[in-house]
Amino acid sequence: MLEITDLHATVADKPILKGLSLTVAAGEVHAIMGPNGAGKSTLAYVLGGRPGYEVTGGSVRFNGEDLFAMDPHERAAAGLFLGFQYPVEIPGVSNLQFLREALNSQRKQRGEEPLSGGDFLRLAREKAALLKLDPEMLKRHVNVGFSGGEKKRAEMVQMGILDPKFAVLDETDSGLDIDALRIVGEGINAIMRSPEKGVLLITHYQRLLDVVKPDRVSILSAGRIVQTGGPDLALRLENEGYDAVMADA
Ligand code: ADP
Ligand code: MG
Ligand code: MG
């Protein structure tokens, strides 16, 4: 589903990704772990097409198509979703307005009819219930005054509404308490666990992987994937640390 080959990318002319290769098949959750500054968030931004992140080599195929030939809106319409470590606040725009606009603009790009107000509201309430987010919060301005956990749950509500084919989730577990972590993890499972979907799950901690069980685990270090294994690799990292596991490789 996602095939990254020898990817090189720079930020402010500084090389960050240095020959990163990684494949995620449909039906898989692939966890990416790695030390701070390794380039994990850079990988997420490059996949999303964020300005300032320059691809200087390599290729990414998404469902067989050249990802870098698509602009960020086309990537989203093609079913790519990005969840960020630090969700942005949008004062003046309610969650409902924002989500309906995002969904209908993607539907339009795919040549589908927009969802009616009533159908959209039902969908939004259903996904809020899944993430145990008070539906009243959907009326509030995007992320303004939300706690860390509410922001992450609101982002997962967004993911549920957009129903993407592939999600790249960057430290979705950061700042979550134990209960919120389980709710968010189970939300990811409910929305994304399917033979037709894939997930790249960037995380520092095993605790999210206890809920969202990965099929594969890779270590990203200094801009490259240095090791890939099964779920046991994450457990070893938790117990032994990056240095010890990478020294063994
Ligand atoms: P990770 O998510 O693995 O902790 P990042 O992808 O955030 O790592 O960062 C990788 C490297 O890129 C770090 O050395 C970081 O300082 C650098 N970097 C990230 N964004 C910028 C930027 N906007 N300008 C300069 N350097 C950056
Ligand atoms: Mg970091
Ligand atoms: Mg990061």
Automatic annotation (TrEMBL):
SUPFAM superfamilies: P-loop containing nucleoside triphosphate hydrolases
One Pfam family of this chain: ABC_tran
A molecular-function term among this protein's GO annotations: ATP binding
Residue span, ABC transporter domain: 2-247
Presence of the UniProt keyword Amino-acid biosynthesis in the record: no
UniProt entry keywords in alphabetical sequence: ATP-binding, Nucleotide-binding
CDD domains noted in UniProt: ABC_FeS_Assembly
Bilayer-spanning residue ranges: none
Assigned protein family: Belongs to the ABC transporter superfamily. Ycf16 family.
Protein name (Swiss-Prot/TrEMBL): Fe-S cluster assembly ATPase SufC
Species: Qipengyuania soli
Lineage per the UniProt record: Bacteria, Pseudomonadati, Pseudomonadota, Alphaproteobacteria, Sphingomonadales
Gene that this sequence comes from: sufC
